[in-house]
Structures are given as C-alpha cells and as structure tokens.
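User: I'm curious what two different proteins look like when written out as structure tokens. Can you demonstrate?

Assistant: Sure. I'll show them one after the other, since each token string lines up with its own sequence. Here's the first protein:
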Amino acid sequence: MSSPPATTVAEAATAGATPLIGGLPDEVVIWEILVRLDPKSLLRCRAVRRSWRRATSARGFLLAHHARQPAHPVLYGYSCVGNDVMSLSIIPLDHRSGLAADDQLQPVARLGHALVRPEASCDGLLVLSILGTYFAICNPTTRQYAPLRMISEFSILGMYPHRPTGEYRLLMHSSKTAKQASSVLFGPCTRPSPENQVGCYVLALGSGQLLRYIECADAKELKLSNNSVLFRGCLHWYPVRHGSGNIMIMVFDTTAESFRLMRAPVFPGGCDDLFEMDGMLGMSSSNKAKTIIRIWVLRDYESEDWILKCKIKLPVMEIRVPWDSHDHEIFWDVVVVPGDGELLVLVKYVGRLLQVDMDGKLVTTFHHKGVRPTQLQLKQSLVRHAFFPSLEGYVVNNWPFI
C-alpha cells in the first residue's frame, strides 16, 4: 500500500500552525514517529495537542498507519459464570519474544454477546457469528459494530475488498435458492432475482443488495472447508474433493468474482490450514494423531509448484499434562498460523493453549481454559469505513462492547 505524499497530510494537519514537535519537520514527526505507534498509543497522543489530532485523523495517515501494524493471530476467549457464558474477548496473540504469557494475551475488545465466534477477517474488520443463527461485523479497534441481516441458512466463506468498486464484500453460501435467500435477507423480493439456485452469493456491505449468484460446482464441499486465506487478490480454501475425485484447492478471484481450481500438493494424511508465509502460499498437513506437521509452500504460484519445506514433530510428552494417561489416543486441536516470517503452531489441549515453534520446541504455555485459536489474522485499523453508518443497528463504543 503506497502512502500519500507526506506534505499533503502534514500541510492539511498543521495548516500554518507551529510545528508538531519543535526542531523536527512535520513530515518526520508524522511519517517516522506517529505512524509507527500502536493504535492505543496513537489515540492517547491525540489528547496532547489539537494539531496532533488533525495529523493523526487524516484518512491517508490512517491507511499508512494500518499498513504498518503487525498481523496477529486471532484468539477468542469466553468469560463464564458457572455454566453461563457472559462475554467474549477478542485477543490478538502478541508473540514477540520477551513478553510474559499474560502480556501476550491482551484483549483488544470484549463483547457482551453469548456464544460469539469470529468467522472472517479483513483489513482490521471481523465478521462474527452469534448463537450460530445470525451475523455481525465489527472493528474491535474503533469499537464500531453492526448486525447483518443474515441467518443460519447462510455460511460465510470469506470477506474481501472489491477493488473495482471500493466496497467490502462477503462471499456466502446459502442452502436456499436465490429467491428464498433474498427474502430471508431483505424481506419479500421486489426486484429481479438472481438465478434460482442453491450455492454461492456475493453481498456488498452497506449496499443492502444481494448482488448475484456465482456458479461453483463444489459449493457444498466449499461450505465444509475451513477459513479462507486472501492472497494475491484471491481467496483460497484448503483442498476439497473435486467432482473428478482429485483433491484441489478452491480459488476465488475477488476482482472478477469467479471460481477456479488450483493443484494441491500430494501428501499423506489430512490438510489442516492454509496461510501466507514469506510472500508465498503455505499449507500444513498432519498425520492422523496430529503429532507430526508437514509444512508445504507454493514455490511458484503460476506453475502451481509445491515443495515440502519442513516437518515439525510436536513435543508430545511436554504437551501432555502430568496427570494425563498415556494409554489412550491423543485428542487435541492444532492450528498453524504465520507470525513475522515464522510459523506458530498453536495446540489447544486440556484447558491450555500451547505455542510450538518450527523446530518442534514448546515455547509458551497459556493457562487460559476458555481461550481458543483461529486461523484468522487481525491487523488493527483506525480507518473508519463509510458502510458502517448505513447498516441498521450500527453503534460505536456501545453495547455489545463492554
């Protein structure tokens, strides 16, 4: 993402006022200091001087600030009283070395809804499913929230920016026909309906329009796939069994809004996760017991040339708790996510979350019973989006944020 000219933002912010910091050009203060702050520190600095508030509120600055933020794996944790779920915390995992375990799990927001789960992420935005029956979108950093008029007949396949229009769009799967889906979303259909088929649809956030049906022969398999990865302007899903019987990766071009297939690597066992690593598309596969993780990377995207990068043997004896019996099979959840040029292997097991590095070494143990890992990434953003106010039920810094 290219930054706007520094002088443009600086001139608009200061408008002939005294320098932001005496002895330093405003361009240096804005583009070398303020733009590097974390969102919480940036919000605090706005209270120092009015000129700082103007400089850090310009959209061009906020886009550049967002581009500099690290992408952290998203965890979510439930707070319970007895057996009742009271709230959900959205937790970016800050895996920088030297931080204490508690400091790595600092919530960016808490929501007062019960049984909420993050479903998709893009540019600092999160789509949430609530009670498994409807959806909402939020920016946990700016504390903007709005419900979406979608219910359990839909599943979210991915969220993406549509570059030709500048809109954020949702790719969805519906078990109903287009006419029925339109009725569910918007009431009785009073406009020409898309093709009358069960399958995939596009919804533009804020437009109030179910745009169209998109043909996908593997829509049912895609619905059962895991979270999508946005890479090179396309959404990717881990391999599904194509109609021909071959295992293929599903790819959705977010500009043309059409599907295609990509060859998957040939590997034993099952595929767990897709991710971006060092500018390449990556994939993890595991044995049945999930004790050995193989990491594959797409060395050449155009020729679909996959190579085996490494094999990670999990430290089984260290992961097991002391009182755990060794006489039964291992049952744990393993998620592989990228983190600043390396991969993090997160293992959820017996009320704990454990982090393992690419050498198979146990790095950190988080003793948080209710915390669960996802394959989503959160790159915090203070950018305000125009579609939020157009959504019915839109709030800022209000319930369900607590």
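Here's a second, unrelated protein for contrast:
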Amino acid sequence: MTEKLLVRVGQSQQEPVSWLIWSDSDSQIIASGELEHSGLLGELTEKASGRSVALLLPASSVQLKQVALPTKWNRKLERALPFMLEEQVASDIDEVFIALGEPATIEEQHYINIALCDLGWLQSWMSVFGDFDIEPTVIVPDALLLPTPEEGALSAIQLQQQWLFKGAHWHIGAVELDWVNDYLMLSPESEVVHYSPADSLATTKSLSAKEAEYDLPLAICAQGLNALPINLRQGPFAAKKKQPQWWRDWKSGVIAASVALLAFVSVKSAQLFMLQSEADMYKTQAMSVYKQAFPNKVVRPHLLRKQIQGELDALSGGEQGGFLELTNHFVSIYSQVDDFSPETFRYDRKRNELRIRAKAKGFQIFSQVKSILEQRGIEVQQGALNNDGDYVIGEIRIRGAA
C-alpha cells in the first residue's frame, strides 16, 4: 500500500485526535484533519479502507528504555526481561506492556531497546479502534518518528500544545509549552534541530532550523514510518494473520458442510452404539439361558452360536429330543409377552416334562403365558404363585407326549 493513514491520539479518549493521509509514491499529503474526540473515529473508517493505518501514541504515555544485558540478546533474556524491569517501574509489572525493539551494542555493552506503556490503557485504545472497524498495522510513539539527529543534538517539532523531542540514543520526550525551556536547560544535548518555527524557544542551546523541511507534524512522522524503529503491535497486540480470499469466499459453505457431516456422523454413531448395546444385551441373555439349560457346560462367548447348535443337534438326535420340542414352544412366548423372566429350567425325561420357575410383573402375565402355550396344543400346569415385592414368582409345567 502506497498510502498511509496516520491517527495520533491523546492520553485520554476525550482529547482531540489528529489524522493525516500520506502518499509514499508522491511524498505528499492527500488529506488531513482533527477530530474533537475519539468518539468520532467512525469518520475515519472509510478512509482507513484500503490503506495501512498507523496509530501514533503520545510520547508522554510511552517510556523508552535501553536495558543493559549480561550477554547478547537471546530467548532466555527475553523471558527474564519482566523480572529485570520489576524494580525499575513504579507500577505492577503485570500491568505494564513491554514492546521489544532492536538489540544494540554501545562500547561492547549489550542492550535491548524497549518501549513501556500501561497495558490496560493501550487495550482500551485498541478496543475503540476495533469498535469503528479500524485496524492499525503499526503502533508507535509519535516522537520516535522524528528524524534521527546527530550525536549531541535533539530533533524537535511542535504538535498542538507540546514540543516533541527525539535524541540520538533511544530517547524521546513530550513537553508542554510552559515547561519546554526548563526541559532544554536540563537536557545534555547542545543543539536543537527543529522542523517547525521555534520563536517560543528561549534557550542557550544552538537552534538549527530546517525551514525547507517545515511541514505538518504528522507529515514529518509519516516519513519516519519508512524506517520504523519499533512496532508495538506485538505480544498481546500482535496482528492476526489475515485469511486468504478463497477461505473468506468459501468459509460459510465449508462450515455448513462440516456441521452437516458432523451431525450425520453423530447420528450414525449413536445408532451404531444403540445397535451394539442391543446386540450385547441379547448376547448376555443367550449366555444366561444357555447356562440355565446346560449348567455343567462352560460358556465360551465367541463360540456360543456353535455351542448352542451342537447342543440342539445332540438333543434333536438323541433321547432328549422332547426337551428341544418343549423348549421351542416355550421360547415362542418371548415375542408376545413382556416382563416375564425364567429363573430355572428342569427337564424330566421320563415324563417328558419341562418345569420353569419364573418371575413376572403380575399374576395376569402367568395366565397369558399359559393361554399362549395351550393355544399351541401344549399341556400346561400352573403351580402356586407368590407375590414377592414388585414381582410374582411361580412355576409352569409344560408336558409333551411321554
């Protein structure tokens, strides 16, 4: 993008907001203005579209420091940096945002250039910009964008009711007009290179006017963005990666298809689970019936079908064929009667009689079982029925031809 929108805010959201659109290709101002307060930032939403946005913070709210390091800058030192600064900041270190600049070496001493500001304050400004759909790509203190001076000199420009200063070694300042002369008296630099008229400066320092470069303060700052010394869009304020256009075009369709596929798989999985549970229940019931019918046999679940078939073949071909016939008649009632559970089976071969001890939910269920078996031509005798709590327990005798 060759055009930039610079937005300079104040300490509070009630202070005026300055803005300027700068063209890099033509090196000129396209438009500029001032908003009365941050609540009017919506007027810049359309101007921000298609342009990179630089959020300029007041230098009075951002502190620059050069932190001396025991060795060359590395990841371990980055993790230890908050602990190194803990005694150098007045507030809780957890409430301070630390932005990393470039490492520096001065006379063989290693340093890391950093910028500090209040974390909650910067979060509130990012929230305001987000409310108006403006996303800064660059966040930087305003004075840091002034031209870099020579050793022993200060770059200076007047912005509203302040003078902004930039020194040669990671030093910036923002001073109210009433205090600017005192500030210059205490500063060690001997020369002030100013990019706006300095008639109000009463100082013994050498004043060097860059009249040919006089311009709007934000226009001077716009040119400094080409050699950005630090960008506070890092850490918790790092810009999110933009999604590719094809994803933005197809995102809703892909999400809808994914939801539909997930729902389909979930339904089928639930059905499969229910069927498997039902199969396990029937298998358990089959094993229970097998144990009751053949108490001396060892049940092998994976061979249960073959075991049952083997026993049935033996019964149908031997003396106990009557047992198989009576059992088949009795099994037929399961599809017609609910809440009826056999507990024991006893077969009398000589009398060809099958005795079933069972429990049911009510007396009428035994009558129903007896009626069904008699309809199949089986002789049925019903024994005594006893009420045992929620169940009725009794015995049924089924007799075939002797």
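A detail about the second structure: The radius of gyration is 45 Å.
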